[in-house]
Amino acid sequence: STTSDQNKTSLDPLDKGQLAIGLKITTRTIAKCQNLGYLPFIKIGNRCLYQADSVMKALERDFGYNWEGFR
Fold first, then answer.
1. What's the CA gap between 20 and 29, in Å, rounded?
2. Measured at the alpha carbon of residue 51, what is the angle toward residues 65 and 37, in degrees to the nearest 5?
3. What is the pLDDT along the chain (71 residues), one digit of tens a residue?
4. Phi, psi of 29 (to 5 degrees)
5. Are β-strands 42-44 and 47-49 bridged in parallel, bridged antiparallel, or unpaired?
6. C-alpha distances in Å from residue 66, one per residue of 7, 31, 41, 42, 48
7. Would you give the DSSP letter of residue 66?
8. Which of 39, 59, 58, 57 is nearest to 49 (CA)?
9. What is the C-alpha separation between 69 and 46, in angstroms, rounded?
Protein backbone atom coordinates (compact mmCIF):
# COMPACT_ATOMS: atom_id res chain seq x y z
CA SER A 1 0.00 0.00 0.00
CA THR A 2 1.11 3.49 -0.72
CA THR A 3 0.80 6.37 1.69
CA SER A 4 -2.00 7.89 -0.41
CA ASP A 5 -3.99 4.61 -0.21
CA GLN A 6 -3.59 4.55 3.57
CA ASN A 7 -4.90 8.11 3.90
CA LYS A 8 -8.14 7.48 1.96
CA THR A 9 -11.41 8.19 3.74
CA SER A 10 -14.93 6.95 2.94
CA LEU A 11 -15.54 10.32 1.26
CA ASP A 12 -12.71 9.89 -1.24
CA PRO A 13 -13.93 8.70 -4.65
CA LEU A 14 -12.83 5.24 -5.74
CA ASP A 15 -11.97 4.07 -9.23
CA LYS A 16 -13.35 0.84 -10.69
CA GLY A 17 -10.40 -1.26 -9.50
CA GLN A 18 -10.57 0.04 -5.93
CA LEU A 19 -14.32 -0.53 -5.80
CA ALA A 20 -13.92 -4.08 -7.12
CA ILE A 21 -11.33 -4.86 -4.44
CA GLY A 22 -13.52 -3.40 -1.70
CA LEU A 23 -16.59 -5.37 -2.79
CA LYS A 24 -14.55 -8.49 -3.61
CA ILE A 25 -15.93 -8.70 -7.16
CA THR A 26 -14.39 -8.24 -10.61
CA THR A 27 -14.08 -4.99 -12.52
CA ARG A 28 -16.25 -6.58 -15.23
CA THR A 29 -19.03 -7.08 -12.66
CA ILE A 30 -18.64 -3.42 -11.67
CA ALA A 31 -19.04 -2.45 -15.34
CA LYS A 32 -22.15 -4.64 -15.75
CA CYS A 33 -23.77 -3.23 -12.60
CA GLN A 34 -22.95 0.30 -13.70
CA ASN A 35 -24.45 -0.28 -17.17
CA LEU A 36 -27.61 -1.71 -15.61
CA GLY A 37 -27.96 1.39 -13.43
CA TYR A 38 -27.27 -0.29 -10.07
CA LEU A 39 -24.21 1.78 -9.18
CA PRO A 40 -24.17 5.55 -8.74
CA PHE A 41 -21.05 7.08 -10.28
CA ILE A 42 -19.49 10.32 -11.40
CA LYS A 43 -17.95 10.48 -14.85
CA ILE A 44 -14.98 12.80 -15.27
CA GLY A 45 -13.54 12.61 -18.74
CA ASN A 46 -13.16 8.90 -19.48
CA ARG A 47 -12.98 7.90 -15.79
CA CYS A 48 -15.85 6.73 -13.65
CA LEU A 49 -15.51 7.37 -9.92
CA TYR A 50 -17.63 5.93 -7.13
CA GLN A 51 -18.44 7.07 -3.57
CA ALA A 52 -18.25 4.00 -1.32
CA ASP A 53 -21.12 5.16 0.92
CA SER A 54 -23.43 5.82 -2.05
CA VAL A 55 -22.58 2.47 -3.64
CA MET A 56 -23.24 0.58 -0.39
CA LYS A 57 -26.62 2.29 0.07
CA ALA A 58 -27.60 1.53 -3.54
CA LEU A 59 -26.64 -2.15 -3.24
CA GLU A 60 -28.49 -2.52 0.05
CA ARG A 61 -31.55 -0.77 -1.44
CA ASP A 62 -31.57 -2.68 -4.74
CA PHE A 63 -30.54 -6.10 -3.50
CA GLY A 64 -31.46 -6.05 0.20
CA TYR A 65 -28.01 -7.32 1.02
CA ASN A 66 -25.66 -5.82 3.58
CA TRP A 67 -22.35 -5.73 1.69
CA GLU A 68 -19.40 -5.96 4.08
CA GLY A 69 -16.71 -4.73 1.68
CA PHE A 70 -16.15 -1.24 3.07
CA ARG A 71 -17.26 -1.63 6.66
1. 8
2. 60
3. 454 555 556 679 999 999 999 999 999 999 999 999 999 999 999 999 999 999 999 988 988 876 666 65
4. -65, -40
5. antiparallel
6. 25, 20, 19, 23, 23
7. -
8. 39
9. 25
